[in-house]
């Protein structure tokens, strides 16, 4: 699951050994980082690294390969950043981490950021990494669901809150009413036949469904992007204060992350090996094939392939004004109560000037 | 060939011997039968082994499944008990805690029991309430999970709620404090208004299940694995796959697509035996899979095919080796027997070769026993003995015949020497042109001719044909000739002296009477004699049963007029008629025996008088000499006969009167 937070209440996943291991790890990481920082400082006072932290919004998996590789390969360090990467998970609330200052940066969905930004938690986007939608509706062909319209009246499991935004817009546009069941951390409801369809990320739940013994030919896969509901997803966020106090740091974090992503794209097996190790440490059950599929699946959403016209659909790392405004419009339509009115320039102060400068194609 | 002895198996030149053929055919036949037996034995052994294996592995599967099954049953029982209590009673939280503790206490396999009340239950007491009891070392702890997290988002709560039936969740990492793998059994319960009341769950630590697996005996190279209804690996000797891999990811990672099919069958709850080839580890595997009833899980028992058939293969290999050794022994025995049989045959063969080369005294192998070889040797011996006898007889007969033939040769040469052979006989006498030829038939015959001057002016020509053939005829011919000569001298045969006591007729009569005297053999001779007066060409002749000669005069060929006269030597005291004629100078008299006219050609046609006459007409045209005439006649006769056997002597005498001439003998 690549979800960020579901509900703003804090909770811990008590069953995970990470309940004990994670704090220990965290302590060790912090201690190591502190020691490293101290030793760096001791060795070379002139090259003092800025300390920063980045909390990912789910457990270690190749959805975050770029960030881990950036740290592993020293891309943060090269930019003078001593970056600590904190894992996410069911027991981690990234918004709370940002709010409480436990972390400086965090990843989350664009729609999540739009939902959770408040006066107290003034989230700004300093880098849009995943620039297109990877949301799917997956159904078994033998259940008779072949198109979106077939979902009318059928049981479907769906993530709640801001994740459901695009889906709700789609159902409204098609005039259908599927019976929605809540989907949380697994697609077991779908696999066991309690629901006829589920929502999935191309790079995660879909792969898990295949790994449970389903063949692509046996599945109906509806891509929200292809249905015309294409909204950016993972981005790097921090509090507005962080941006204003050190914009260069924010840019460097974004650039180092992108560099990490480029490295992961060029060395997928190395990335998979690293993430596999990290997942094992926290007891997150993934396998090599899953991580590899995940990485290869998400990369085209980060680095665009050029279209026939030769123009790139987006600039890596940049959130275009058009995408932002589209997403805001969708959220306002679906979540009628809360209207979003933060301007693009405030929300995405970094602007479109990314490493490769190219005109706004959207 | 010196020094080259063909082996008893045969040689390249002679091909396979009897021994070789016997050995080869025996080996081929026995070998084929043996191979068939082994093949059948192998196939049926394999079949039997496979059936046996299947039965054994089925039993193992059943035993393992039921052993594994026992443990979750406990959790199910506890959960259902809890459900019953909740449905029947409305305990308050304190009571609930005690009840729950007492439920799990007797069951060490159950590590936790919890009730996730629905937020919509409507009961104030149950609002935000999720009681949980768990084992902690030797005690049982208790807490309200609602204080810790939102239980409604977890599968153990959602699945029974959404599915409406009891479920076993996927395994996950565990319990507080233990960190082990755990799986939950959870059931939905509804209140009296059929509203959702709660999801009740019990946890089992997986090591209970995997320990069972560890106790099952799967031999040295077999193993058992366990997967969930999603194919997730729950127990496997490769521990790193547990919980992380599914049977489908393993299939993909190893590049064995058949394992995907196996996974599907297992996930669908099917039971059976599955074979596939593991490409990654290059081995054939057999997997028995059967579902764990009620859990949706499936267990697989894996055996390398080699191991199952190891026994059979070993046996077959041993059988094959034994068989080959047996066949080798058999080969030796059959060669030995074959050589025993063929040895007497070979020595017989060697002996007969010697025999055939003429060494009739070559010893034959000794006869032992009464078998076919002995009988064969016996018949060879008797054949050899009669051969020896026959050859002796042949030699004697051949010698005798050769003796006779040499005597006959002598007879022939005697006969030929009796007739005058010098030509021209009277070279100084220019009144005479005389040539004669006698070609004897194969056997010594009785033809003869003779001519001599009875006086200075009279020439006597005689031709005769003795009856019969061979030495008697030759002897008779000699006697007749002698008498003719002798009596012609006494007779005179001169024309001046008239009277019955001289002349050819009288001569014949005298000779006839003389011959009869000693003629015990009753032979006879045909004779013709002519006495020619050389002064004027007049002649007198007599005939004793002989064909009349031809006279050629001025191109005309006429036979001398017939005169009466019997065969000479048949009856005594007979008289012969005498004829007379005159020759003009250049006229020719042609005397012959019936060997000429009765010559046969290939088609057995007689030459005949007509032909002789015609030929005489042709050959004497141009007045050639007598020798030429005879030559020509001989030529023609030869061409007519054309290679057919000469049955009778061919005798021809040709006399041409040249005229009175200048020479008169004084």
Overview of this structure, please?
The complex is a heterodimer of chains A (362) and B (666). Chain A has 14 helices and ten strands. Chain A has helices spanning 18-43, 65-72, 75-78, 94-100, 110-116, 165-174, 188-191, 205-211, 240-245, 247-266, 268-282, 288-302, 321-334, 344-347; strands spanning 50-55, 81-86, 105-109, 123-128, 135-140, 155-158, 179-182, 197-201, 219-223, 234-239. In chain A, helix 11 packs across helix 12 (288-302). The model of chain A is unreliable at 1-14 and 354-362 (pLDDT under 50). By secondary structure, chain B is α+β, with helices and mostly antiparallel strands. Among the domains of chain B are: 90-208, Beta-Lactamase; 349-417, no CATH class; 419-657, PPM-type phosphatase domain (Phosphatase 2c, domain 1, 4-Layer Sandwich). Chain B is 43% helix and 22% strand. In chain B, strand 12 (272-278) and strand 13 (283-292) form a beta hairpin.
Which assembly state applies to the chains in this document?
heterodimer
Low-pLDDT stretches of chain A are 1-14, 354-362
* Biggest beta sheet attributes of chain B: 7 strands, antiparallel
| Structural class determined from secondary elements of chain A | alpha/beta
What is the β-strand count of chain B?
24
Under CATH, the topology of the domain at 419-657 in chain B can be stated as: Phosphatase 2c, domain 1
Rg on CA atoms of chain A, Å: 20 Å
CATH class of the largest domain in chain A: Alpha Beta
What's the arrangement of strands in the largest beta sheet of chain A?
Answer: 2-1-3-10-4
Distance between the termini of chain B: 84 Å
Mean pLDDT of chain A, to the nearest integer, reads: 86
Shape of chain A: globular
Secondary structure: helix percent of chain B: 40-55%
Mean of all residue-level pLDDT scores of chain B = 84
CATH architectural type of the domain at 419-657 in chain B: 4-Layer Sandwich
CATH superfamily of the largest domain in chain A: Periplasmic binding protein-like II
Summing up helix and strand content along with how strands pair, one would put the structural category of chain B as alpha+beta
Give the CATH superfamily of the domain at 419-657 in chain B.
PPM-type phosphatase domain
Q: How many strand units of chain A?
A: 10
Query: What is the rounded Rg of chain B?
Result: 69 Å
């Amino acid at each position: 699951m690549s979800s960020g937070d579901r509900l703003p209440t804090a909770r811990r996943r008590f069953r995970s050994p990470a309940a004990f291991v994670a704090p220990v790890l965290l302590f060790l990481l912090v201690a190591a980082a502190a020691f490293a920082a101290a030793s760096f400082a001791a060795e070379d006072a002139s090259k003092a690294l800025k300390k920063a932290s980045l909390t990912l919004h789910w457990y270690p998996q190749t959805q975050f390969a770029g960030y881990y590789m950036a740290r592993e390969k020293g891309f943060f360090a090269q930019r003078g950043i001593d970056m600590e990467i904190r894992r996410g998970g069911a027991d981690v609330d990234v918004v709370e981490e940002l709010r409480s200052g436990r972390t400086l940066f965090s990843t989350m969905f664009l729609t999540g950021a739009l939902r959770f930004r408040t006066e107290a938690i003034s989230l700004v986007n300093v880098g849009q990494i995943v620039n297109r939608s990877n949301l799917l509706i997956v159904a078994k062909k033998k259940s008779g669901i072949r198109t979106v319209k077939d979902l009318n009246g059928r049981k479907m499991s769906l993530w709640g809150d801001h994740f459901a935004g695009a889906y709700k817009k789609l159902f409204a546009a098609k005039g259908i009413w599927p019976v929605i069941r809540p989907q949380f951390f697994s697609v077991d409801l779908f696999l066991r036949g309690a629901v006829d369809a589920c929502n999935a990320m191309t790079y995660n739940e879909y792969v898990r469904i295949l790994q449970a013994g389903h063949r692509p030919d046996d599945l109906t896969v509806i891509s929200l992007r292809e249905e015309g509901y294409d909204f950016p997803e993972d981005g790097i966020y921090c509090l507005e204060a962080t941006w204003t106090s050190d914009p260069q740091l924010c840019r460097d974090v974004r650039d180092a992350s992108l560099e990490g992503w480029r490295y992961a794209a060029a060395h997928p097996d190395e990335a998979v090996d690293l993430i596999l190790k990290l997942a094992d440490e926290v007891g997150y059950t993934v396998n090599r094939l899953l991580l590899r599929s995940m990485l290869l699946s998400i990369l085209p959403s980060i680095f665009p392939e050029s279209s026939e016209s030769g123009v790139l659909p987006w600039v890596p790392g940049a959130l275009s004004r058009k995408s932002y405004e589209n997403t805001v419009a969708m959220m306002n339509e679906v979540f009628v109560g809360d209207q979003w009115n933060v301007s693009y320039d405030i929300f995405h102060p970094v602007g479109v000037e990314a490493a490769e400068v190219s005109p706004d194609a959207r | 060939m010196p020094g080259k002895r063909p082996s008893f198996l045969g040689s390249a030149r002679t091909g396979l011997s009897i021994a070789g053929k016997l050995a080869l055919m025996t080996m081929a036949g026995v070998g084929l039968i043996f191979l068939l037996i082994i093949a059948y034995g192998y196939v049926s052994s394999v079949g039997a082994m496979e059936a046996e294996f299947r039965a054994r592995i089925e039993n193992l599967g059943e035993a393992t499944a039921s052993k594994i099954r026992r443990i979750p049953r406990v959790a199910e029982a506890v959960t259902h008990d809890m459900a019953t209590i909740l449905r029947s009673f409305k305990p308050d939280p304190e009571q609930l805690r005690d009840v729950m503790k007492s439920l799990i206490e007797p069951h060490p396999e159950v590590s936790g029991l919890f009730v996730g009340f629905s937020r919509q239950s409507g009961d104030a007491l149950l609002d935000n309430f999720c009681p949980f009891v768990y084992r902690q070392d030797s005690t049982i702890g208790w807490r309200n999970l609602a204080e810790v997290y939102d239980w409604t988002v977890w599968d153990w709560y959602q699945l029974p709620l959404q599915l409406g039936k009891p479920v076993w969740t996927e395994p996950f990492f565990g319990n507080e404090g233990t960190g082990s793998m755990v799986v939950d059994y959870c059931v939905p319960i509804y209140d009296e208004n059929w509203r959702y009341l709660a999801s009740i769950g019990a946890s089992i630590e997986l090591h209970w299940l995997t320990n069972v697996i560890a106790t099952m005996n799967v031999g040295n190279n077999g193993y058992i694995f366990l997967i969930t209804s999603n194919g997730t690996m729950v127990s496997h000797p490769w521990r790193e796959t547990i919980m992380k891999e599914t049977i489908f990811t393993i299939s993909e990672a190893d590049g064995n697509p058949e394992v995907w099919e196996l996974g599907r069958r297992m996930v669908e709850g099917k039971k059976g035996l599955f074979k596939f080839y593991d490409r990654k580890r290059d081995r054939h595997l057999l997997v028995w899979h059967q579902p764990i009833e009620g859990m949706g899980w499936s267990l697989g028992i894996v055996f390398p095919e080699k191991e199952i058939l190891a026994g059979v293969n070993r046996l077959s290999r041993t059988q094959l080796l034994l068989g080959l050794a047996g066949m080798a022994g058999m080969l030796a025995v059959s060669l030995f027997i074959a050589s025993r049989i063929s040895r007497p045959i070979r020595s017989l063969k060697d002996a007969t070769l010697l025999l055939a080369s003429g060494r009739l005294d070559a010893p034959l192998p000794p006869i032992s026993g009464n078998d076919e070889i002995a009988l064969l040797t016996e018949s060879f011996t008797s054949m050899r003995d009669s051969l020896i006898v026959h050859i002796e007889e042949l030699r004697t007969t051949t010698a005798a015949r050769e003796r006779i033939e040499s005597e006959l040769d002598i007879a022939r040469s005697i006969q030929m020497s009796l007739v005058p052979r010098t030509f021209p006989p009277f070279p100084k006498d220019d009144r005479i042109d005389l040539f004669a030829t006698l070609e004897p038939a194969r056997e010594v015959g009785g033809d003869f001719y003779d001519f001599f001057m009875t006086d200075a002016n009279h020439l006597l020509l005689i031709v005769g044909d003795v009856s019969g053939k061979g030495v008697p005829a030759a002897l008779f011919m000699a006697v007749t000739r002698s008498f003719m000569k002798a009596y012609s001298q006494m007779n005179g045969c001169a024309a001046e002296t008239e009277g019955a006591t001289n002349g050819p007729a009288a001569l014949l009569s005298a000779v006839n009477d003389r011959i009869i005297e000693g003629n015990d053999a009753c032979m006879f001779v045909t004779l013709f004699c002519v006495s020619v007066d050389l002064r004027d060409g007049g002649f007198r002749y007599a005939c004793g049963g002989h064909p009349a000669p031809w006279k050629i005069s001025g191109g005309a060929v006429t036979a001398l007029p017939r005169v009466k006269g019997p065969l000479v030597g048949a009856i005594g005291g007979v008289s012969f008629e005498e004829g007379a004629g005159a020759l003009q100078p250049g006229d020719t008299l042609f005397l012959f025996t019936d060997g000429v006219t009765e010559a046969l050609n290939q088609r057995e046609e007689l030459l005949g008088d007509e032909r002789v006459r015609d030929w005489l007409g042709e050959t004497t045209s141009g007045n050639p000499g007598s020798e030429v005439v005879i030559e020509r006649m001989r030529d023609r006769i030869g061409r007519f006969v054309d290679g057919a056997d000469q049955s009778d002597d061919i005798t021809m005498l040709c006399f041409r009167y040249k005229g009175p001439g200048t020479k008169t003998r004084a």
